[in-house]
Design brief:
Length: 428
């Protein structure tokens, strides 16, 4: 059967990241012999909304117009779940690709969600706090009929944070007439947020370091780590790695990076960023390096924790790390994946590695629905249990199929989703 939807509909979500996501899916679908009727449904999202809306600048003399998006890839598994990002290059294709990846991610760790993603095409660093709040509240109003605790639950992503989630929760609650904490996750603890949500993605990623290092033939004591990206994911991954006995030798953000072979004081770097908003000017007793040079250090472990498409066929052959753990969404292209596999580099894929964020978001959602909150110790323990179990299951699939961890993880996720699709059938 021809890929009729893919041929005719791909243009609707055209973007490099969406092509990569569909390419990954097609490769695994062919490998497991997925029924083409199911495969065709899963190549494209079930719901997509694009909105344009105005917002006032602080001087109130100028009104700007922005594009916003929300994509729900799969509605068969329960409510949809996924972050909202604010960035100058956000587009429908990128959001659709990330929603698809969220579907596989939730299925891999066994959460009762389909994948979703949202975004606003804006540079949040160019907005004042008041402008950011007005943008957030208007965007929420535009998509309000598409979200809800039993429909679609947003969370923070690149360019957004717990305060943005608090504004979304308040705007939604004002519209329905009562407080609805479960409409978003990743919000402040004072509004029903989880006490461990901010650190969850980085902490979950690093929880896999001991077992992943074993697969790569590395000793964990004093293992050296380079981290690309020093936002919520990267900074807490760095902190967790250091607390676990690793030596963080390189970090970077949009302003560039730092290398110190003796190890960077992560808490000191975090304090610098809190004061100055970036790593610009920070040396940490080491040397300033470029973002590209972070990938080329002699660190044994590389953690890309910023944006997608940063490990490509242009630099994959020069990476010295023997283990790559993906904290960002889609940081490695298909072409780079093949190069890394051929070189024997172990890659813990994003759909498994950064699933800690959505896992603790799930915990937060459950707590909000029940009005019963857990301690940080309980949350961290359950996070480690779920991440460890998912890794073991993916590793078992990799052994059976004699394949890499990314392919094995996608086999697990796609199979679970396909089973749900077939069990529900088609209406009418």
């Amino acid at each position: 059967m021809s890929h009729s939807i893919l041929r005719g509909g791909l243009r609707e979500w055209e973007s490099p990241l969406y092509q990569e996501a569909v390419g990954q899916f097609d490769r695994v679908a062919d490998l497991i012999g997925l029924d083409e009727n199911v495969a065709e449904r899963l190549r494209v999202p079930q719901r997509s909304i694009m909105v344009t809306f105005p917002y006032r600048h602080d001087d109130y003399d100028e009104v700007g117009s922005l594009f916003g998006y929300r994509v729900q890839h799969l509605l068969s598994m329960g409510p949809t779940k996924g972050g909202i990002r604010y960035a100058p290059d956000v587009n429908l294709g990128e959001v659709a690709a990330l929603a698809m990846l969220m579907t596989w991610k939730c299925a891999i760790v066994g959460l009762p969600f389909g994948g979703a993603k949202g975004g606003v095409r804006v540079d949040p660093t160019a907005l004042s706090r008041s402008e950011l709040q007005r943008v957030t509240r208007r965007y929420t109003t535009e998509i309000i009929n598409f979200i809800g605790p039993n429909k679609d639950i947003p969370a923070p992503d690149m360019g957004t944070d717990e305060q943005v989630m608090g504004w979304i929760m308040d705007t939604y609650s004002q519209q329905v007439g009562y407080s609805v904490p479960a409409v978003v996750t990743g919000k402040p603890p004072a509004l029903g947020g989880s006490v461990a949500r901010r650190e969850a993605t980085g902490r979950g990623l690093v929880s896999l370091l001991p077992v992943a290092a074993l697969q790569a033939g590395l000793a964990t004591d004093g293992i050296t780590v380079a981290i690309h990206g020093f936002g919520n994911v990267g900074r807490y991954a760095a902190l967790a790695a250091q607390q676990g006995g690793a030596k963080v030798v390189a970090i970077s953000d949009v302003s560039g990076g730092v290398f110190n072979g003796k190890g960077i004081d992560v808490a000191d770097a975090m304090a610098w960023v809190d004061r100055n908003r970036s790593l610009e000017g920070y040396t940490g007793g080491g040397d300033r390096i470029s973002n590209e040079e972070v990938f080329l250090t002699d660190a044994e472990v590389l953690m890309p924790c910023a944006i997608g498409g940063v490990i490509t066929d242009a630099n994959a052959g020069d990476i010295n790390a023997r283990l790559i753990m993906e904290g960002a969404n889609g940081p490695t292209t298909l072409a780079a994946d093949r190069i890394l596999n051929d070189r024997g580099v172990v890659v813990v894929p994003d759909v498994l590695g950064n699933a800690g964020g959505v896992t603790v978001s799930y915990f937060e959602w459950v707590q909000d629905l029940q009005n019963y909150f857990w301690s940080e110790t309980e949350i961290v323990g359950r996070l480690r249990e779920i991440m460890s179990r998912a890794f073991d299951e993916v590793m078992s699939i990799a052994v059976v199929h004699k394949t890499d961890l990314r392919t094995a993880a996608l086999i697990k996720g796609i199979r679970r989703v396909a089973d749900a699709k077939l069990a529900r059938g088609i209406f009418p």
